[in-house]
Amino acid sequence: TESSRIINFGAGPSALPDSVLEEATKGLLNFDNTGIGIAEISHRSPEFTSYLSSVEALIRSQLSVPTTHSILFTQGGGTAQFSAVVLNLLARHRLLFPDLKDEERNLDYVLTGSWSKSAHKEGLRMAGKHQVNVAADGRIYSKDSKSFDIIPPHESYKFSKDPVLIYYCENETVNGVQFKHDSESIDKEGKSIEGTFPFHLLPKDKLVPLVGDYSSSFMSRPIPRLADHAVIYAGAQKNIGPAGLTILIVRNDCIVDVDAAAALGAQPVPVTMSYKTLADNQSAYNTPPVLAIYISGLVLKRNAELGGMEYYEKVNRRKMQTVYGALREGEEKGVFRGHVQPGSESWMNVVFVVLGEGKEKAFLKGAEERGMSGIKGHRSVGGMRVSLYNAITEEQADKLAAYMREFIASQ
Ligand code: PLP
C-alpha cells in the first residue's frame, strides 16, 4: 500500500503510482489475456502492436500533438538524442541547402544548465567543421557569474541565420532551472515575458529546426508552442514510466532520407538513430523496450482518467507552490537558501541548500526518519534537490513541506 512505501523524491528513475505497479505485475504474468507475460511476448504480436498504437494515441491526445508531427519511440535516452538530433537535422539541412559548405551550417545551443551543457558538448563532437554557437548563456546572468541559476533574458539571444538546429533544455534537472510555460513570449504591448523561450525572435515564415529537450518535464503540463518545434524528446523515467523508453515528437519535415543526404556529403546516420527508420517501421524496426512501453502505457491511461495535462498542470502547480512556500519561509529565517533566481524556478526539481555546519546531514536524516528519500542534491551542485514528478501526490508534497517547517522551527 501507499503508506508502506518510502516517498521517493529522487530525480530519476523516480516514483511510479502504486496502482500502476500493481496492475503491471498482472501484465508481467498475463498480457492482454494472451496467457503470455509482457516481458515475454513478441513485439510483433497483434496484441503488442495494438498496445503500442494506443500508447501513441494517448500521448497525441493528451498533448494535442498535431498531424504535422509524428510520435516515435526509441531507446538510448536523452543522451542518445544529443547525437541523433544533430545527425538527423544535419541530413535535413544538407537536403535543404545542398550547396552550402559545412562551415556555413551552424548549430545553436541555449545554455541554461548542466544538461544543455552536455548537449552542446556532444554537438561539438558531432559537428565536424560546422560552427557550434552558444545562442544564449544563463551563467552570464547568474548570482556568481558561473552557476546556472536563471533563464537568460530575451535580449541576450543571438540565433544564426538558417541554423541546422536550435537546442534548448526546457527543464534543467540538475540545476532546477526551467522555462516558463506561457505560450506567448511577449505581452500585448510587445514587451518580453522574461523566463519564457523567446519564440517571437524566431522567423515566422520558415519551419524552424527548434529542438526541445523535455526529459524531465514531459507530460507534467502542456507544452507551449508544441507545433513550432522540430523535435521534442524525453526519456520516460521521470514522469511517465521506467527507464529504457525514449519518446520523440518529430515534425514531419525533419524525417528525412538520411542516405540521400549522405550521398550529398552529409554524415551517415546509424540506422537505428534515423528518424525515418523509426517512422517507416512504426517504431519497431528492431525490438523496442516492451516492458517500459507497457508500464508507460498504464501511466498514460491513468493520466487520461485523471484529466490529462489540465489535471497535472493544476496538481503540479500546487505541489510546487507548497514546497517553494516552505523554502521561502526557511530563507526568511536563515535556514534554507534557494539556488535559483526568482522567475526561473523549476516545478519539477527544487534545488536549495540548508545553511550552517552539519545542517544538511541533520535535514537529510530527519527526512529519512520520516520515510522520505532521494532529496540529496546532485554532486555537481550540492545541497538538496526535491523532485516533484507526476507520481508525487499533493499529500506527499504537503508532508515534505510540513517537515521543512518543523526543521525551520527547530533551528
Ligand atoms: N536531458 C535532461 C534534461 C535530463 O534530465 C537527462 C537525464 O536526467 C538527460 C537529458 C539524459 O537522459 P538519459 O539519462 O535518459 O540519457
From TrEMBL:
<dbReference type="GO" id="GO:0006564">
    <property type="term" value="P:L-serine biosynthetic process"/>
</dbReference>
<dbReference type="InterPro" id="IPR022278">
    <property type="entry name" value="Pser_aminoTfrase"/>
</dbReference>
<dbReference type="InterPro" id="IPR015422">
    <property type="entry name" value="PyrdxlP-dep_Trfase_small"/>
</dbReference>
<feature type="domain" description="Aminotransferase class V">
    <location>
        <begin position="7"/>
        <end position="400"/>
    </location>
</feature>
<keyword id="KW-0028">Amino-acid biosynthesis</keyword>
<dbReference type="GO" id="GO:0004648">
    <property type="term" value="F:O-phospho-L-serine:2-oxoglutarate aminotransferase activity"/>
</dbReference>
<keyword id="KW-0032">Aminotransferase</keyword>
<dbReference type="InterPro" id="IPR000192">
    <property type="entry name" value="Aminotrans_V_dom"/>
</dbReference>
<keyword id="KW-0663">Pyridoxal phosphate</keyword>
<comment type="similarity">
    <text>Belongs to the class-V pyridoxal-phosphate-dependent aminotransferase family. SerC subfamily.</text>
</comment>
<protein>
    <recommendedName>
        <fullName>phosphoserine transaminase</fullName>
        <ecNumber>2.6.1.52</ecNumber>
    </recommendedName>
</protein>
<dbReference type="Pfam" id="PF00266">
    <property type="entry name" value="Aminotran_5"/>
</dbReference>
<keyword id="KW-0808">Transferase</keyword>
<dbReference type="InterPro" id="IPR015424">
    <property type="entry name" value="PyrdxlP-dep_Trfase"/>
</dbReference>
<keyword id="KW-0718">Serine biosynthesis</keyword>
<dbReference type="GO" id="GO:0005737">
    <property type="term" value="C:cytoplasm"/>
</dbReference>
<dbReference type="InterPro" id="IPR015421">
    <property type="entry name" value="PyrdxlP-dep_Trfase_major"/>
</dbReference>
<comment type="pathway">
    <text>Amino-acid biosynthesis; L-serine biosynthesis; L-serine from 3-phospho-D-glycerate: step 2/3.</text>
</comment>
<dbReference type="GO" id="GO:0030170">
    <property type="term" value="F:pyridoxal phosphate binding"/>
</dbReference>
